[in-house]
Amino acid sequence: MEIFKIVGLGITATLLAVIVKQYKPEYGIHISIATGVVIFLLVIGKLASIFEVMHGLADKLDMDVVYLKSVFKIIGIAYIAEFGSEVCRDCGESSIASKIEFAGKILIMVLALPILLSVLNLIIKLMP
Hints:
Oligomer: single chain
Radius of gyration: 20 Å
Structural class: mainly alpha
Number of helices: 5
Order of helices and strands: HHHHH
Helix content: over 70%
Shape: elongated
Largest sheet: none
Mean pLDDT: 88
Low-confidence stretches: none
Distance between the termini: 54 Å
């Protein structure tokens, strides 16, 4: 199972980072960032199957692909912003991490606006 590989990698990297930080603190941060990138690369391949299922569902529901793409972009922004902010927190920069999260939220709101407007227009059309 993939999760055992990921957890094993995470625990091994954590132990290595803790040991290395005693002698060279800057290398501990590099180990943490590299491990995060490797874990991200391990799971990013799984997203293709999720995209296929969502496209199939959109076709069955006769949903506009533009909305589906927006949802994927929103999810991507959320994950990338979370990853970036956690890396900043690991480096002791919680202020920058907060700014990354704030920017992610703004970008999500911008992408969600057309979907929200479409839903509101649909509600208005349904009202007598």
